[in-house]
Amino acid sequence: MPTVSSENLFDVLIIGAGPIGIACALECKKNDLNYIVVEKGTLTNSLYNYPLNMSFFSTSEKLEIDGIPFISNNPKPSRNEALEYYRRVATSNKLNIHLYEKIISVEKVGDHFEITSNKKSYSATNLIVSTGFYDIPKMLNVPGEDLPKVTHYYKEAHPFVMQKAIVVGASNSAVDAALEIWRKGGEVTMVVRGPEIGTRVKYWVKPDIENRIKEGSIKAYFNSEVIEITETEVTIKTPTGNRTLQNDFVVALTGYKPDFDFLRKLGIHLSEDENHFPQYNPDTMETNIQGLYLAGVICGGMETHKWFIENSRIHSKIIARHISQKINTLQN
């Protein structure tokens, strides 16, 4: 491992520059903690990769961090407004954030962590993981899923104009994609594992998709699942038997999951059930590894709807307070 210079020694290293990572940086700065944020992509990388025309479920004040006002022109702020807000927070506060830098390894050595990225090596007394869950899609695990026509992310409708598009899922992202593709001239079929459109779908959107399905504008197969994808067709299993549909594109929006392998490599204990809840103390956000903290949606394991920006903002204050208390105790 390369030698760590004195300028790369920190009280806190934060992995992830999403909204909660930014909130952690603000709290570290307020508490005079020597910190750095390392992010493998762009600032708020997950938000950047959201659909271009996406609107949040939350109102703007619930997306604010550190009491910094988030002014929106709409009742529900858009993706672009959120990007502008978090850019302004990061730049106006001159936060120490390194972008496009991927963490390669983390090793606990005595009372500190040795961290290596693809660019530098760091040493930090405390480590905060705030990496979200948007990087690893839940796979369908069916033949043909690796074809170029299949995507697990949706950006905009234009590529699907005048195409037969199957949208898999019934979450907010799937419903938004289905409606937008249909409105832009695509022929949309939804394949939904459950009996109905998801209960968490935005309340002002749910009647829209249900009415489009009812009138036949958008075809939907409920209690169904994709079982095979080919270059020109998709076979689905339905309650009335298998059906093969002509198809140009598959947009599989079945959700995402945290990088559990990374958490395990860090030594964090995960529950043995299907949710893989990481072990941490809710009073401090410290994991079973001393000095290693979790913040944001990563805390919910596979229950990715448990934590979001508005209810996990508090994690940054809890962590910064606990680290400051430890440092003060050592100094006294």
Write the layout of secondary structure elements.
Elements (H helix, E strand, L loop, with lengths): L8 E7 L3 H12 L4 E4 L6 H4 L30 H14 L4 E2 L4 E7 L2 E6 L3 E9 L6 E2 L12 E2 L12 E5 L3 H12 L3 E5 L14 H10 L3 E3 L3 E5 L3 E6 L2 E6 L2 E4 L3 E2 L2 H7 L25 E3 L14 H4 L1 H18 L1
Parallel strand pairs: 1-2, 1-6, 2-3, 6-17, 8-15, 9-10, 9-15, 10-11
Antiparallel strand pairs: 4-5, 5-6, 7-16, 12-13, 13-14
Helix pairs in contact: 1-8
What does the model show?
- By secondary structure, this protein is α/β, with parallel strands linked by helices.
- It has two domains: 6-136 and 256-331, FAD/NAD(P)-binding domain, CATH 3.50.50; 139-252, FAD/NAD(P)-binding domain.
- It is built from eight helices and 17 strands.
- The protein has helices at 19-30, 45-48, 79-92, 172-183, 206-215, 260-266, 309-312, 314-331; strands spanning 9-15, 35-38, 97-98, 103-109, 112-117, 121-129, 136-137, 150-151, 164-168, 187-191, 219-221, 225-229, 233-238, 241-246, 249-252, 256-257, 292-294.
- The strands form four sheets. Strands 1, 2, 3, 4, 5, 6 and 17 form a seven-stranded mixed beta sheet that branches.
- β12 (225-229) and β13 (233-238) form a beta hairpin.
- The chain is elongated, with a radius of gyration of 22 Å.
